[in-house]
Amino acid sequence: MQPVVPLVVPQLRTITVGGALAGVGIEASAFRHGLVHETVASFDVLTGNGRLLHCTPEGEHRALFFGFPNSYGTLGYALRVQVRTQPARAFVALEHRRYRSATDCLEAIARSCEAPDSDYLDGVAFAPDDLVLTRGHFTDAAPWTSDYGGEQVYHRSLRERERDFLTTHDYLWRWDTDWFWCSRHFGAQHPLVRRLLGRERLNSATWQRWMRWNSRWGLTRAWQRLWGRHPESVIQDVDIPLPRAAEFLDFLKREVGIWPVWLCPIRAAPATPRWTLYALQPGVPHLNFGFWDVILDRQAQPPGWHNRRIEAEVTRLGGRKSLYSECWYTEAEFWALHDRPAYRALKAAYDPGSALGDLYAKCTARGGRG
Ligand SMILES: Cc1cc2nc3c(=O)[nH]c(=O)nc-3n(C[C@H](O)[C@H](O)[C@H](O)COP(=O)(O)OP(=O)(O)OC[C@H]3O[C@@H](n4cnc5c(N)ncnc54)[C@H](O)[C@@H]3O)c2cc1C
Fold this sequence. Notes:
alpha+beta
């Protein structure tokens, strides 16, 4: 029997299909297939008022089908999700192409979105003038395979080799071992530390646990304060219309200074259907920028200072951001970006007693999350 793989598999092993549907899931196949929710055929949902409903694009509950992505569990809980799949092969052959010019790199992305030339496409901006695009092709045979689940670090390989081969399994989880590059905060990219930790601990679940523990006890914050620095956590995941991506890169260079940045192209969304709470500009490919770090300031800034500026720039460029990111929108800003009347209608139909809470309150610092 031909093995298959979901059309879009978010890179981190901890991400569930329900979480990727209720949030917004992405991976290097998004330039062909769109975001995770665009690959969902149907799902069963337990609503806030205790009903178990089957949602499809054409069925009675189609409003919930199209309103569920980006609702983060405030309309109901998905219990069973049916996703579309594609035939898989045993290996993925990788080609890493390095660019010294962001313009050249963005032009290559635009060409690939117009006429997909591989099965997978993502990139990393290590610096404004050091970008790598990686194309992945399914293949039945490989002359060798690399292993980035132990001592070797995947993101380093992007600048060290032009070709590589991974088993399809290892390709899908290539970013999990080091949580992209965030494991560096725990010293875990040193060979000795990797050996001591062992393969079973090198994964996003470990880093996530440690990060939560650190933020609960405020260790890094206290340490930085000791040195007169004011840290602000900047965890951002934003989708920018591709024609404006160069402006966003300039902004990152000028105002943010976090590198590396993960780049993941998303195919142009058709005008219909419209995803109520995550409507990207139709007919325009987008580029996802993922960047996760702490900015250290010498001077104290108002809470959310850097995150607020990023939000304003995303809005200026006509983009969107995932709500798992640090969110500092005011309520008015938030609902100017998310269709409030449609959300209210969905709440009235599926969670009339608001047992599951409100999206703004759940996802934003000002609404209560922070
Ligand atoms: C550091 C970091 C990196 C990330 N990188 C990526 C990435 O590379 N690619 C990507 O696609 N995504 C990425 N994400 C985002 C991730 O896809 C979303 O946050 C997603 O919602 C997480 O799914 P989860 O299963 O882990 O859900 P959880 O984190 O457990 O929950 C997230 C939210 O979704 C709700 N939820 C969870 N399951 C369900 C369900 N079955 N039905 C309804 N609501 C539900 C929860 O109530 C909660 O509000 C990243 C997130 C972080 C924090």
